[in-house]
Amino acid sequence: MSGRTDGTAERRGFLRALGLAAAGATAAGAAAAQTRADSVPAGQARKENEQQRVAARYRETDHVKAYYRTNRYEH
Amino acid sequence: MARMKFLCDSDRCIECNACVTACKNEHEVPWGINRRRVVTINDGRPGERSISMACMHCTDAPCAAVCPVSCFYTTADAIVLHDKDLCIGCGYCFYACPFGAPQYPRVGNFGSRGKMDKCTFCAGGPQQDNTRAEYIQYGSNRIAEGKLPLCAEMCSTKALLAGDGEIIATIYRERVQRRGYGSGAWGWRTAYRETVSI
Question: Which InterPro entries match (chain A) (predicted)?
Fold first, then answer.
C-alpha cells in the first residue's frame, strides 16, 4: 500500500518536473526569439536614408589590395 | 565606379565548404539557412565539378523585379540588398532567382516562413553601418570596414573570387592563360549580361 503511494508521488513529481521543464523551455525560446535574425526592436533600429543606403562603400584598402595580390599567385 | 562581383573558379574548388562555414559563422546565420552553399556535379565520377554558390548580385536582379513590396535596392557598388522591415516573406524572389539564393527561416510548425535572408556581399543592409541592429538583421558589414566578403577571403585554394569585377576578371583571365584551359566564369552570363539595360 505504502509502496503504491510512493509510486504515485514519484510519478506526480516526475510530471511536475516535466511541466516545469516545458515552461522553462518556452521562456528560453522567447528569449532566443529576441535574437532571431529578423527581430530587431523598433527602438534599436536606426535606418539609413535613401542616399545613404545606396552609397558606395567599397574602398581599395591595403587589406583589399593584399587580397587581389595573393589571388594572383600561381599556386 | 567599381562593380562588385563573385566569381567561382570551379577548376580550383575542392568542395571543402569553408566558404559556407565562414559565412554562417561571420553573420551568425540562423539554423536552416545557408546564404552560401557548394554545389557538386558528377560527384565521385570523372568530370566532377564543384561550384560555390550564393546571391550573385545580378545587374538586373530578377528578385527585385518580382518583389511585390519593392524591398530590394542596388547600391552604387552594384550590391543587391534588401530591407527586412519591408519583406513579407512571400517567396516570389525565391522562384525568380536563377541561383536559388533567397532563403527563409522557418518560424512555425506548419511551414510558415519568416522574412527572406540572402547573401549581402558582406555589406549589411539599410540599418546604420556596423550597428547592433544591422548585425542582428543582416550580419556584419565588412565592405564598410574596407574588407571583402569573408567566404572569398577564407578560400584556401583561392577558387572563390570577390571584389571589383574588372580586377577579378583579370585575375581569372591570367589563370586561364597560365594553365591553358578554363571552365568559364560560371553564372556570369546569367548574372551580369552586358546587353541588359537597367
Answer: Formate_DH_TAT-contain (IPR014177), TAT_signal (IPR006311)
Interface touch B133/A45, C-beta < 8 Å: yes
The overall pTM is greater than 0.90: no
Tell me if A12 is assigned to some domain.
yes
State how far residue A12 is from chain B, nearest Cα, in angstroms.
29
A64: domain range?
Answer: 2-36+49-71
B163 and A37 within 8 Å at the Cβ level: the answer is no
Q: Which backbone phi and psi does A31 adopt, to 5 degrees? A: -65, -40
Write the ipTM. Answer: 0.91
Whether B133 and A73 lie within 8 Å, measured CB to CB = no
Q: Look up residue B71 and give its three cell numbers.
A: 524591398
Alpha helices in chain B (DSSP H): 18-27, 62-66, 92-96, 132-138, 150-154, 165-179, 188-191
pLDDT (tens, 9 = 90+) of chain A, 75 residues, equals: 455 666 777 777 877 887 777 766 665 555 444 445 566 666 667 788 889 999 999 999 999 999 999 999 976
Question: Is A42 contained in some domain?
Answer: no
Which site among A46, A47, A57, A61 would you substitute to test the B interface, given the most B Cβ atoms closer than 10 Å to its Cβ? A57
